Amino acid sequence: MIELRMSLQSLMVALILGLICLSRCPGMAAPAGETDDEAFDMENYDLNTDMEWENLDVNSYGDTYDYDDLDQEIEVGTVARDTPSPATQPAAQHYEEGVSLPSLPPAPDSLDFIGPGLFGPETGLGRSKYKLGVYLLSKSSTVFSICINTCGLQVYVFKKSSLCLCAGMPTCLLCVCISGSVYCDDMNLDQIPPLPKDTTHFYSRFNKIRHVKSSDFINLNKLQSIDLTGNQISEMDEDVFHSLTQLQELLLADNNMQVMPELPINMKFVDLRNNKLTSRGLHSEGFKDMSQLEFLYLSNNKLDYVPTPLPLSLRVLHLQNNNIQSLHEDTFCNLHDRNFIRRNLEDIRLDGNPLNINLFPQAYICLPRLPVGSH
């Protein structure tokens, strides 16, 4: 009952407000003294008749518009704020208040290959025109000039790969560097790029490197492994490995080497397969003092004899497909000690040589296993 009474009261209030609005807003009400039927002539309006659209005068509806006014010029402005000229711009000294930038020391003009630092030779952190970036260029005759214009005169140009590496640019932007290992495989490099000084393992396989210079590995005291398999190396500086006191693994398979430079005495793994090495191209007694050498691969070369003396640590010796024609009693054994046994050397390959291993039985009496070869 109470709800019904409240509804009736709300309805009455709404009606009163409506009447007040109609009385004060004459434009919203029908003209005085004229009913809706009279205003719209509803009695004479036939819904079934068709409109005579052809005789319809469009000018009779509403006010006409003069389209000639559109010929006037319209000025178009810009919503962007006007930028004052440099002469009228206020000095932005208040932005720099309280901020002091440290002044950098001038870069030295010469490189310090021996001094401390992150990068190796010719990486040029001390160069005044240090560039950071890799510039990939299209293969054209203008590669060299583009590199010069980009990097200045201090530039490495890899012409065949159409890539120029600015002197002073970290190699880790060109190659992949992971925890001291640098991977530059299959990048069409024709020279060894500058390496970080903390490099321990360097891989540059299947490139087009022809010459390895002594400056390529200078000041890399932590380098333990070098893999240059599958390049076109035919020349190496004699002292290229002299500064590598930690080097233990060297892989130079599938190159064009005829002469081998001197190796560090702490080598453990040496792979020189598929080269053009001759016995004269190896240092006399070059492997004698390598007390840690375990694996020596010399197959598919042009060797005339086994490179003796061999260290006692050697486990694997592959010499197949050379030009070895004879063996001696002291090639593997000790003539002065008949009880001597070479226990570690269990894998010897001599097959593919013009050699009949049955003719040299005294050469194997100290070996735990007979070598593989022709009979």
Write the layout of secondary structure elements.
Layout: H1 2-24, H2 36-40, E1 134-136, H3 143-151, E2 155-158, E3 163-166, E4 176-178, E5 181-183, E6 201-203, E7 211-212, E8 225-227, E9 235-236, E10 249-251, E11 269-271, E12 295-297, E13 316-318, E14 347-349
Mean pLDDT: 75
Helix-strand makeup class: little secondary structure
Task: Please state the CA-atom Rg, rounded to the nearest Å.
Answer: 46 Å
Task: State the low-pLDDT regions, or none.
Answer: 76-80, 91-99, 107-162
Q: How far do the termini sit from each other?
A: 125 Å
**Strand content range:** 5-15%
Strand order of the largest sheet: 4-5-6-8-10-11-12-13-14
Helix content: under 10%
Task: Sketch the topology as an H/E string, one letter per element.
Answer: HHEHEEEEEEEEEEEEE
Task: Describe what you observe in this structure.
- There is one protein chain.
- With 375 residues, this protein is largely without helices or strands.
- Helices cover 10% and strands 11% of the residues.
- The strands form three sheets. The protein has a nine-stranded mixed sheet, with no helix packed on it. It has a three-stranded antiparallel sheet with strand order 1-3-2, with helices on one face.
- The longest helix is centred in the N-terminal third of the chain and has 23 residues.
- The N and C termini lie far apart (125 Å).
